[in-house]
């Protein structure tokens, strides 16, 4: 069969599998937004039968033989064909090289692990959780081995979330970042302005939910989220799911923390803009799916931080904000607002962290994961190692493990290698930002006029429309003309926070 | 293989297919409640891939061979086993005896038919719709023939919605009903009270949606709908979907028709109570699915009409209703309210019809369907026949086909044989009602105290818990001790409306 014909037969099979995946995603969305409390078991059964169906579609032997044929004559494929085949191979191997029994056991272990973690966290009892972590590490190593990467298990875990990423690359990037960021953070924290930022944030109280809803809808619509192809709802933990013409974000409202729902929504809208910008006709293939979690996170962070925490953004939106909350904002100056928007305060808890310190939480987790996989660190020594790293990086030591190693859910079901994406996303966002500032010096004036179209257009063309044709590192190199480096992130933080605090 | 072992292997296969069906139902619910306008195409693709998957599960050859084995030695099965096998055979034959090409063609025709109907209705142009109806009739006949019932195609269509039902049985029941109901309706319409009922209904205006929502939530919860295993949302057309622990109803609110959302919700809650009362451990088999559309409709109608339009029901709920709507109900007497709740007025439009006249709309449609299938009536003569029947049954003649034969969507995608369920449901509800009044003479006093537990308990045990073990007619016979007859419906209408109007 001609290579073009094989590709033409392959693509619908990939799309079919992807489509089944989108149904699973909808079940997941519905579970967090709508599910009646008593329906959890029924939903689990629906998830299971759908997962089984999707697995059958993904491991369809016809995909295997088409891939073998396509890979036998790589020279006859163009760049897009090559990318499609490469990504399909990756999915196919994941679907076929893991024995069904292993997949089943791992799913059971994941579910057990989650509950063991929840109990251990509630009771501040790391010892009860340690055997779960040991087991999860063992499963991760076995999984890597089944895929032929047993010797580089942590690389395999990183690659799961970000195709092509390696521990060595992350190590280098994070090492450099740590070196420059810790002193900057320390200087900011020592500044008298930090205290004022806290005080101002504390004064933002009693913002009615309904008006918050109106404001964040206007903001997300203005930056370009297309509500004809998406929606926003409320859930306990904010997230963004779906793709193509049906992208669903969630948020949560707190009357006394009005900036939370706003920045959370802009963050999710950043994810949503990426999904809405993927080439719909190629959904399910490397041309139509996102490039990995780091690039995804770069899109959410760029809109949340570089854009929505900027002075020019607020120059446009502040009047409307005051109009919606006249009583709550009386006596608050524009400088106060800008300070509240950019408050910095080291905390022990990652999910509460600001834009500056957040990265150090990730560096900490990466260092733990790396050492756990290399064997340099034993699970039982994790709490102690965590405390030491926390002191070194954040200047804070957790009083207990609930505020330390037990705070995150990720490892409980074996999701190692995910954390680095968050920080890499920040780096990528900063590097893209540096690039657009050069390309369009008047960008912040656009924002001040409420015009975000140029930025979105540029991201659409250079990032969204690329799908997964390139790895994160390669995409950054192509778009910005240089290798990914933390220096742009540090420079951006220095500029914004240095100017404000130092 | 022992029969018990075969059954044990069969049941999980049936459940798997059913579970895939529940996912499809959720997609359908979401489509009407949540779907972003631009996502229709993506949703259609999801429906298609899921339908294909479910079809593969339902037509699994292993089901066929298990059924053949079980049917070969029927004496070794108990009553439940027999019911499970019978129903599974019905589903299996439907899934396997229709050629894939026919199914595809019919789906395309159904979709085309819907759009042709919508256009024809808008333009009041029956002639453009006639060829679609001809084609739909042809598809129905072919479908019946594939299932070996080409000689009784209309029986086959009825049986699709209500296992075991025949045109002869419906004909007898509807003939009797028509004979007794038309005079009753005429007498009511001629009563001076009818005018007063209209006037009172017209005075119910400006009921805020939020308070309506509170009230109907309280009502549906009080009659027993379990919100831990279900929810209610808003959609353009009210419906109830889902089963087991996840039952989802919808409603719609109109400030000037406050009884619409209420009775609509109680109606859907009646469907929901039935689904919540099916034996969850048997979902997907004859022991765990509803007995057909007529019995389903009997549950919604019984709660909506016999219960929620009764004086004793309002004796309990009226104070709360007045409390929620003090300004809107000032000057309205309890008798006024009761009259508005039971207003009767013949209309040309089925979906606007009251409890008395509704049945005659169904008799009309049944007579048309019966004659279309027998060949007694040609499609081109349908508008004329409809007008004549409308005059005879309702005393009203449509001025155009939009208010006549073009008003309903059902036939546009070939759903013949569905209409009778609505009226049969009313008959069954009335017959069950007559039975419970004998068994529990103090039932209406229960209602006046806001206590609906006895009634729900009785329905749970006698109807819901029975699943599809019996056909509708057999179930009625078992539960009420007599054959289904319209006399209970007529007697009930005579008692309630005769007392009020005559």
Summarize the structure.
Chain A is an all-alpha fold. In chain A, 67% of the residues lie in helices and 3% in strands.
Q: How does this model look, in words?
A:
- Two copies of one chain form a homodimer.
- With 502 residues, the first copy, chain A, is an all-alpha fold.
- The first copy, chain A, has a domain at 1-96.
- Chain A is built from 22 helices and three strands.
- Chain A has helices at residues 3-33, 40-58, 61-72, 79-96, 100-123, 126-146, 153-161, 167-190, 192-203, 209-223, 258-277, 293-307, 311-324, 326-329, 334-341, 358-374, 382-394, 419-439, 443-448, 453-462, 472-480, 487-501, and strands at 230-234, 240-243, 246-251.
- In chain A, strands 1-3-2 form a three-stranded mixed sheet, sandwiched between helices.
- In chain A, a hairpin with a 2-residue loop joins strand 2 and strand 3 (246-251).
- The first copy, chain A, is globular.
- The mean pLDDT of chain A is 96.
- The A-B interface holds A 16, 19-20, 22-23, 26-27, 30, 34-39, 41-43, 45-46, 49-50, 53, 226-231, 244-246 and B 16, 19-20, 22-23, 26-27, 30, 34-39, 41-43, 45-46, 49-50, 53, 226-231, 244-246.
User: What is the quaternary state of this protein?
Assistant: homodimer
Global structural class of chain A: mainly alpha
Shape of chain A: globular
Output mean pLDDT of chain A: 96
How many alpha or pi helices of chain A? Answer: 22
- What is the H/E string of chain A? HHHHHHHHHHEEEHHHHHHHHHHHH
Radius of gyration of chain A: 23 Å
Q: Biggest protein-protein interface? A: A-B, 31 and 31 residues
- Spatial arrangement of strands, main beta sheet of chain A: 1-3-2
Low-confidence stretches of chain A: none
Q: What percent of residues of chain A adopt helix (DSSP H or I)? A: 55-70%
Total number of strands of chain A: 3
Percent strand of chain A: under 5%
Reported for the largest beta sheet of chain A, the result is: 3 strands, mixed
N-to-C span of chain A: 66 Å
């Amino acid at each position: 069969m001609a290579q073009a014909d094989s590709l033409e037969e392959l693509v619908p099979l990939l799309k079919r599998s992807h489509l089944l995946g989108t149904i699973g995603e909808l079940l997941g969305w519905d579970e967090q937004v709508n599910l009646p409390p008593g329906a959890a078991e029924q939903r689990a059964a629906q998830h299971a039968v759908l997962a089984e169906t999707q697995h059958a579609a993904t491991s369809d032997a016809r995909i295997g033989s088409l891939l073998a044929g396509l890979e036998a004559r790589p020279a006859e494929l163009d760049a897009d064909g090559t990318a499609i085949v490469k990504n399909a191979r990756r999915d196919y191997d994941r679907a076929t090289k893991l024995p069904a029994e292993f997949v089943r056991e791992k799913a059971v272990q994941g579910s057990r692990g989650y509950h063991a973690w929840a109990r251990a966290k509630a009771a501040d009892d790391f010892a009860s959780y340690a055997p779960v972590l040991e087991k999860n590490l063992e499963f991760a190593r076995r999984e890597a081995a089944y895929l032929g990467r047993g010797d580089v298990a942590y690389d395999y875990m990183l690659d799961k979330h970000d195709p092509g990423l390696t521990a060595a690359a992350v190590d280098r990037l994070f090492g450099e970042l740590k070196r420059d960021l810790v002193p900057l953070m320390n200087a900011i924290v020592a500044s008298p302005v930090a205290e004022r930022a806290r005080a101002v944030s504390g004064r933002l109280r009693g913002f009615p939910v309904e008006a918050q809803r109106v404001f964040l809808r206007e903001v997300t619509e203005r930056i370009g989220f297309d509500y004809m192809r998406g929606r926003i709802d409320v859930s306990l933990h904010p997230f963004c799911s779906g793709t193509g013409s049906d992208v669903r974000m969630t948020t949560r409202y707190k009357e006394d923390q009005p900036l939370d729902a706003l920045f959370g929504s802009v963050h999710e809208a950043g994810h949503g803009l990426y999904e809405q910008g993927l080439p719909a006709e190629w959904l399910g293939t490397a041309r139509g799916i996102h490039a990995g979690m780091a690039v995804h996170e770069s899109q959410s962070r760029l809109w949340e931080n570089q854009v929505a925490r900027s002075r020019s953004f607020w120059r446009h939106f502040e009047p409307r904000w005051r109009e919606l909350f006249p009583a709550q904002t009386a006596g608050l100056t524009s400088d106060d607002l800008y300070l509240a928007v950019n408050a910095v305060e080291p905390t022990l808890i990652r999910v509460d962290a600001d834009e500056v310190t957040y990265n150090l939480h990730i560096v900490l987790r990466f260092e733990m994961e790396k050492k756990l996989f290399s064997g340099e660190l034993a699970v039982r020594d994790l709490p102690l190692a965590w405390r030491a790293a926390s002191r070194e990086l954040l200047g804070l030591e957790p009083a207990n493990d609930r505020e330390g190693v037990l705070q995150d859910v990720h490892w409980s079901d074996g999701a190692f290698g995910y954390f680095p994406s968050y920080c890499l996303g920040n780096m990528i966002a900063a590097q893209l930002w540096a690039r657009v500032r050069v390309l369009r010096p008047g960008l912040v004036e656009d924002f001040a006029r409420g015009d975000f179209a140029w930025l979105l257009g540029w991201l659409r063309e250079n990032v969204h429309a690329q799908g997964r044709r390139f790895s994160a590192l390669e995409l950054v190199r192509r778009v910005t003309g240089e290798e990914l480096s933390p220096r742009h992130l540090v420079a951006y933080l220095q500029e914004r926070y240095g100017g404000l605090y130092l």
